[in-house]
Every structure is written in structure tokens, then in C-alpha cells.
Amino acid sequence: MFERRNIQRTYLKISREVKDFLLSDKSREFFIFLFFFFVAGGFWLLQTLNNDYEADFSIPVRLKGVPNNVVITSEPASELRIKVKDKGTVLLNYMLGKSFYPVILDYADYKGVDNQVRIYPSQFEKKVLNQLNASTRLLSMKPDTLEYIYSTGASKLVPVKLRGTLSAGREYYLSDTIFSPDSVLVYAPQGVLDTIAVAYTQPVKLEDISDTLRQQVPLRIQKGVKFVPSSIEMMLPVDIYTEKTVEVPLRGVNFPADKVLRAFPSKVQVTFQVGLSHFRQINADDFHIYVSYEELLRLGSDKYTVKIKNLPKGVSQVRFNPAQVDFLIEQVSLDYGD
């Protein structure tokens, strides 16, 4: 009850103060000033809008009537940027009231050369001028030429390839680069289509990757070429490095029938880095140390430096213990039967 009385008292007090202010001499002077201020502002605005100004506007561009057997591989510009000059009142009408209709290009109206169509200002400028007031001057249009390239159904499937650089964080590595889809359909005029073997991605630069990454990557835009789809999903599986050691025997190759390789030791320890997910899959049978007879003859010493030509996939940072082995080429007798 007490709170309600306080609220009523406060309301009545504020109402009286507002009423007294509105009926006071100061209030009348304030409203007279405000009235003349708005009148002066209105005159100033009308005077300002009566001057000539330049302004930029955009008009949409649409291509219609494309036959079913035609693929537009490079679209025309989606809009025309026009610069016009007129009185401020007219430009204000363009900004606030008038909306521009699209410039319609009918496919059947234009003939191309080598699957390329160029439409010059003289062929579409009238469609712009028809939407402007008679007093409006068209100063410029950009682009000043509309063009598009088409293919009459010629296409082929090409693989996707990465363009860019990828690097994993410390102690991690990228076990693969997977694209989905890994191939895309490419449409282009026949002469251009014959030169396309792969679809490259837009340049990609990713560093210090420490977790499996999925990313949508657009394909590189080429004039007169359309890829379907125009972007692909790239997955970068990331694995952590671990170290493993296996024992691998040295095997002689291309030795004459009466000679054999004797190596000391006959096996070496191969230590390497491999992703944790492949640790159990990689074993000694995946490594082959072949020593050719011809190579040993060229050495001129009895020490052979161990090396492997082909490493299993996912293996890196390989080292041998020992790095060199002693060897001799032993003559063996051939036992021929009767």
C-alpha cells in the first residue's frame, strides 16, 4: 500500500513539472526555435538536392534461354556497375524508391566464335538507358563488355590434385591426403578440354597440423572451364611418430653360380620412424637390403655401406646399425651330377 502511494505521488509530481515546463515562456521559445530550425533545414536540403551529383548503382545481369545441351563454363558478369549524373532529387529517387530491372541476355540472340561470346555496349546499353530518367546522364559502365564461354556438352573426368604446402606439427606427420570426390567432371570447349589433365585446388597453406583435419577446398578457376563439383572436401589424417627397430638380412643379387656373399654381420638393425597407427603393420619382411655383385666389384675394399633403395610407405628417418659391414665373396664348388 505504502509503495503504491509513493508511485502515485512521484507520477503526479513529474506530470506537474512537465506541464509547467510546456506552458512556460522558455518552452515556447524552445519550440519556436525548433520549428524554424527544421524549416531552415528543409530549405537547405531542397537547395542541396537541386544541385548535380554523380552516383554509382548496380544493375543485375541475367543470361536466359540456354539450351539443355549447352554448359556455360564461364558466366557473364553478374552485374553492371554504372556511374550516372543528375540532380540530387533524381539520384535520391534511384537510391530509395526505384529498383533496376535485370539486363536480360538471350542466348539465342548472340553468336560466338570458338565457343566464346562477346557482347559490346552498343548491344545492351539501350536496356540500361531505358531504366534511367531522361535527364540522367550515363557516364560509364563496368564491365564495358559482357562475355561468356560455353561448351556443347564436351566433358571428361579428371583427378584432383593439391596445389599448396602442408606441414605437420613437431612429432606428427600427415599419413595421407584424401579428396572427396577424388575426381571431378570438367566441361570446356573441345580445344581447351584436350589440354586439361588434372583439376588443381586453390592454393592451400597449412602449417603445424596436429590433428586430423577436414576442410572444404575450392578448385582453381580457369577461364572457359567449369568443374562439377566446383569444390571438394580434403581430409588430412594426422599420426604421431614412434620409433621401431627390426633385424634385416643382407642378400646378394646377380652373383655367379659359383660365388656367394658372406657379410659380417649377416643382419643389420634397421631403426626407423613410423606412425603409431602403422606400428604393428611394419615388420622386418617389409625391408630388403640387396647387395649386387657388380657393386661389390667396383668398391675396391672389403667394407660395404648399408643402404635401402625402396622404403615401405609411411617409414622415414631410417638408420642402420652397423652402418657398414665387412664382406667377402666366397668361391663355392659346383657339384654336377652324372
TrEMBL record:
Q: Which Pfam families match?
A: YbbR
Report TM segments. 30-46
List the residue ranges forming a coiled coil, or say none: none
- Keyword set, alphabetical order: Membrane, Transmembrane, Transmembrane helix
Q: Out of the domains of life, which is the source? A: Bacteria
Please name the PANTHER family in this protein's record: CDAA REGULATORY PROTEIN CDAR (PTHR37804:SF1)
Output this protein's name.
CdaR family protein
Organism of origin = Bacteroides uniformis
